[in-house]
Design brief:
By secondary structure, the protein is of the alpha/beta class. 30% of the residues lie in helices and 25% in strands. The strands form 2 sheets. The chain has an 8-stranded mixed sheet, with helices on both faces. Strands 2-1-4-5 form a 4-stranded antiparallel sheet, covered by helices on one side. It starts with a strand and ends in a 7-residue tail after the last strand. Bound molecules: iron/sulfur cluster (SF4).
Length: 321
């Protein structure tokens, strides 16, 4: 199938007083149309920087995109100017953040907020029609239309996140990016929001990138998985490949909890050792100070990504028999 998104050799640094943070380096990633990609890894691995680079909402300064191309629908969107990019954001690519309150305006009713998003991208639509559409969007995410006149504080955390999803989907985006969309919610509500996202994916064929710490979420709704470590993708493949044949030592560590996937505790298992200082990364393979399989060569050579089976890429020097 066609790739909706193709990132080539993306490098993003932050220039700070403490030094240069190598947030994302030579990152390559593809997302076929209608599919969901899970982006996993520890805090600071570069996941959020990657998606913010796609959206072009990185704070500049200190962030600098040093190189790379981001093909969306076959066009390199890094080459677009601000105005063109604003059109793409929201209309074609939407993003849901971790904390719904940062995206909702407390003094405007939710119906009006969704309506505004709709009108921003379809200026010909009358206020009345846009409001009707906003109400439909609310119903779609399981909120009664008669609540459109309520303000954000009148909703629970889970409902607010649904409102955000309704807003993100209001323009029928081709790509929905969700940065830990359920972290701030309790477990039952998390399950409901996920169920909703799964339904929407099936109904609208929306492609998604989901940043998450929760392997349960990955197992449930992601078709592909990219594992990030210290600014690089160390393993990429489909869900089956990653869960059944994890090959990078880091992924193996992360996915060590798979037998318990059916139980509630599906968070990533912390791996011994510290995430490296992004201003002073280890030589060679960035994982070598923590890697139980490291050999001498690992501290000298940063391995290339190898295709170990069709569509399954691993960035490690050690070849498994
Ligand atoms: Fe471990 Fe070496 Fe592979 Fe890096 S290259 S993950 S240090 S075995």
């Amino acid at each position: 199938c066609l790739n909706l998104l193709e990132i080539k050799d993306l490098t993003v640094h932050y220039v700070t007083v403490d030094g240069t943070v190598h947030a994302v380096e030579n990152l390559n990633l593809t997302l076929p149309e209608g599919k969901t990609l899970g982006l996993v890894g520890e805090t600071g691995a570069g996941k959020t920087t990657t998606v913010k680079a796609i959206m072009q909402i990185l704070p500049d300064p200190p962030a600098k995109i040093l190189s790379g191309e981001v093909f969306f629908n076959g066009e390199d969107i890094l080459k677009k100017n601000k105005k063109a990019m604003r059109k793409i954001r929201g209309k074609q690519i939407s993003m849901i953040f971790q904390d719904p309150m940062t995206s909702l305006n407390p003094v405007i009713t939710v119906g009006e907020q969704i309506m505004e998003v709709i009108r921003l991208h379809d200026k010909k639509l009358s206020k009345k029609d846009a409001y009707t559409k906003a109400c439909e969007m609310l119903e779609l995410v399981g909120i009664k239309a008669d609540r459109a006149g309520d303000y954000p504080h009148q909703f629970s955390g889970g409902m607010k996140q649904r409102v955000i999803i309704a807003m993100a989907l209001a323009c029928n985006p081709k790509l929905l990016i969700a940065d830990e969309p359920t972290t701030a919610l309790d477990v039952t509500i998390q399950a409901q929001v996920l169920e909703l996202m799964r339904k929407l994916k099936a109904q609208y064929q929306t492609s998604m990138i989901m940043i998450t710490h929760d392997l349960g979420i990955v197992a449930e709704i992601c078709d592909y998985v990219a594992v990030m470590y210290a600014g690089e993708i160390v393993e990429y493949g489909n869900r089956e490949q990653l869960f059944h044949r994890p090959s990078h030592p880091y992924t193996k560590g992360l996915f060590a909890c798979i037998p318990n996937l059916m139980e509630e505790e599906t968070a990533l298992i912390p791996i011994e050792g510290m995430t490296p200082d992004p201003t002073n990364l280890p030589s060679g393979c960035r994982f070598h100070p923590r890697c139980p399989y490291a050999v001498d060569e690992c501290s000298k050579t940063n391995p290339d990504s190898r295709e170990i089976e069709k569509g399954h890429y691993v960035k490690c020097l050690i070849k498994e028999e």
